[in-house]
Amino acid sequence: MTAVKTTETAAPAGGTTPPALPPALTGGARKRRRRGGAFDRALPYLLLAPALIAILWLIGFPVVSVFVTSFRRLNLGELVRGEIVWTGIDNYVTVLQDERFWTVTLRTVVFTVSVVGVSVGAGLLIALLMRVLTPWVRILLQITMLCAWAMPILASATVYIWMFDQNYGILNKTLVRLGFDQFAGHSWFGSGTSTLTVVGLLIVWQAIPFLAFSLYAGLVGVPRDLYEAAGIDGASGWQTFRAVTWPEIKSLLMMVTFLSTLWDFKVFAQIWVFKEGGPSGESTTLAVLQYLEGIAKSHFGVAAAISVLMMLILGLITFQYLRRLLQTEEGKI
Amino acid sequence: MAVSGCGTSTNSSSGTETKEITVWLMDGSAAPTLTDALNKEFESANGIKVKYEVQKWTGIQEKLTTALASSTPPDVIELGNTQTASFADQGTLMDLTADASKLNGGEWLGGLKDSLTLNGKQYGMPFYAANRTVIYRTDLFQAAGIAKPPTSRAEWIDAINKLKAANASNPDFQALYLPGQSWYFLLSLLWDEGGDVAKQDGGKWTGTLDTPQSKAGFEAYKALYDASATKKAPADIDEAKPQQMEVFGTGNVGMMVGLPWELAGAVKAKPELKDKTAAFPIPSKKAGSFAPVFLGGSNLAIPAASKNADAAKKYLALLSSKKYQDMLAEGGAVPGTSKDTSKLATNAIGKAMADSSPGGKVTPTTPKWAAVEAGQNPLKDALTAYLSGAKSLDQATKDASEAVTKAMG
Questions:
Q1: Are residues B281 and B311 in the same domain?
Q2: Is residue A35 a part of any domain in this protein?
């Protein structure tokens, strides 16, 4: 479609130049040009087409498949026998009628917002800090963060579980040593809020390196003379940040916030390895709920319905950003 | 070719030549001596290689789901007796009713046979059964002046206190290692008090964890948990994470409620424990009798989509023979396809098991039970909430009962 459009717009554009050419050549050149132009313009798209189709299929197929599956009854039996049983919106009714779904949704949204807020805030602070550090301290900090970033999810989760262990964890032992005796044998996973706080801490720890590096890259791009000018005008640190730094990194900050939201909303592994969504299901988020329904109970149709609902909720959360993104493309910002 | 291949299932599997079969057995189910001999004999007799893989119990339900849905599932799988019905109900297992005679069908263990029978058809072959006993350290009992193993719950708690007193100098000592979510053991206490998990009424299952009898079972668990040690096991872990045999193997533990293979694992890690351990049946609250135990066990099944069903059946037939069943019994398990348990009573843990297994019970035999065990088990949640004080007994059991009703409804 795009290819066709481009060739059509190319023709009149080509038509405006010929008058500058000698009259004798105009007719032939015009003809050749138009044909050559059309082909030349279409060529990149034709060359891109196979890759584009492959990517669309790779990305689009699972999405379509999930959507289609959400209208099927697909349990282990149907899956093994290869049966296709359509159930209309039954799966959605099942999910939406379950009062647990709404609790879990609310919990997921609160969890996502807090984790994203804390991690982006901490990432920004570290990025700002990195700019004023002496080079070797900065390099040390960067290496430390790279190591944290490179650590596999499950490995770091296991370390966190050990640190917060009830009887032998270093945290409880340290707190007792400092005189807080009530932490002897304290269970950090005794309630959903407490469990999710520890999980959130782990996710923030894992997310900071990426955020700090990205934002630091943005900060480095801010021209030095702007700060000099602000300094001459007698701006305070906060005023400099508001007037100089903020406008420059605003769009970058919005992008990393958007990405963080996507990642943190669907986080599963960390929550699952801690307490499998427990105790009493109090740390169950939508991703965990989907796993429980889909894999543990083999109701793949219901799990697909949860996935579609998750996409909708995520769309709602990021609606503002998506709208601005589209506006930017039309050149309004 | 294509036409003959689409014929009956027996034709299709015999038509192609099988070079290898994949066998999945569970961690701790059969001793390597048995499986090595079995695989070797099968390979030389049939010229078919056996790809033998040992699976972990943690997360097996999910792993089996994925494996059974694939086009090349393993050819022989081991299923827990409480899981079998749901997998059979979904049509994922091969109907072995017609082959039972070749698999020593006349000697199948009743409790396991029931667990693999659905609508009068058999979807597997019993493998072995085992039940939990209290495994204890004879040397520590002696040192604490406990003359003979306890025969009632009161005596048991008394023994726990004596052990604690005798080992007071060791801050990490646990007279009884009892993690908060040992729910198979909770079943024993529930049944001992006359309670149960669920009851069936006109085809509908309802949770019965909040009856006075069931609550008494929970209270008994708490009494034992509170007494178990000064530095108790966490309330929010089960006996598999960490493996309780590893904890027992540290030497700081006087007793654990466990299966024979768990003791074997502890002994393997610390050989000197071999002569210092024995077992007694879980005591009842009524002096002199035993608490009903959960009859754990495994069945062997052939996935419906197996490409090598004929070879897999031969493998099962070989395993069902007396030679290997005797080896199972020697290893400390009740054999699934042989009524001869004389080999079992030769060791202390086998004897304790043989004593209590006649009074054994199972969880509801319905395909719907799997939904209770899979994922977030309400019994475990109730135990943790009650033991840690997050919920009152009434609230915890009420919530669990409702969750069971919902999962089985």
A1: no
A2: yes
Chain B partners within 8 Å of A187 (Cβ):
234-236, 388
B381 reaches A (C-beta below 8 A): yes
Is residue B368 in some structural domain?
no
Residues A140 and A259 in one domain: yes
Same domain, A60 and A12: yes
Dist CA B83 CA A274 (whole Å) = 25
Q: Does B364 fall in a domain?
A: no
> Burial, A4: exposed, middle or buried (Cβ in 10 Å; 0-12, 13-18, 19+)?
exposed
Hey, are the CB atoms on A296 and B375 less than 8 Å from each other?
Answer: yes
User: What crossing angle do the helices spanning B153-166 and B212-228 adopt, rounded to 10°?
Assistant: 20
Residue from the list A167, A295, A297 with its beta carbon closest to the beta carbon of B234 = A167
Q: Please tell me the distance in Å from A54's CA to the nearest CA on chain B.
A: 25
Which residues of chain A lie closer than 8 angstroms to B376, CB-CB?
276-278, 280-281, 284, 292
Rounded Cα gap, residues A4 and B132, in angstroms = 74
Largest CA distance in chain B: 77
Strand order from edge to edge, sheet including B174-177: B174-177, B253-258, B133-137, B277-280
Residues in chain A: 333
Which range marks the domain in which residue B335 is found?
Answer: 2-130+296-359
The pair of three-digit structure tokens given for residue B72, joined into one six-digit string: 């090349």
Tens of pLDDT, residue by residue, chain B (409 residues): 333 333 334 434 444 577 899 999 988 788 888 899 999 999 998 889 999 999 988 778 878 888 888 888 999 999 988 888 888 888 889 999 988 888 888 888 877 888 888 888 899 999 988 889 999 999 999 999 998 899 999 999 999 999 999 998 998 899 999 999 999 999 999 999 999 999 988 878 999 999 999 999 999 999 999 999 888 888 888 888 888 998 998 889 999 999 888 888 888 888 888 889 999 999 999 988 899 999 888 999 999 888 898 999 999 999 998 889 888 888 778 888 887 777 777 777 888 887 887 778 888 878 888 888 877 899 999 999 999 888 999 999 999 999 999 888 7
CA distance B71 to chain A (A): 8
**Phi, psi dihedral angles at B76 (to 5 degrees):** -130, 130
Residue A322 covered by a domain: yes
Q: For A5-40, write each residue's pLDDT tens digit.
A: 433 444 444 444 444 444 444 444 455 555 567 888
Rounded to whole angstroms, how far apart are CA atoms A235 and A233?
A: 6
Q: Are residues A19 and A122 in the same domain?
A: no
Cα B112 from Cα B63, distance rounded (Å)? 22
Measured in whole angstroms, the distance separating CA B155 from the mean position of its chain's CA atoms is: 27
Domain membership of residue B365 (yes or no) is no
Q: Which amino acid is at A294?
A: G
* B142 plus B280 within the same structural domain: yes
Q: How far apart are CA A179 and CA A177, in angstroms?
A: 5
Residues of B in contact with A296 (CB under 8 A): 61-62, 374-375
Q: Is the Cβ–Cβ distance between B127 and B336 less than 8 Å?
A: yes
| B327 Cβ contact partners less than 8 Å away, ≥ 6 residues apart | B31, B33, B34, B37
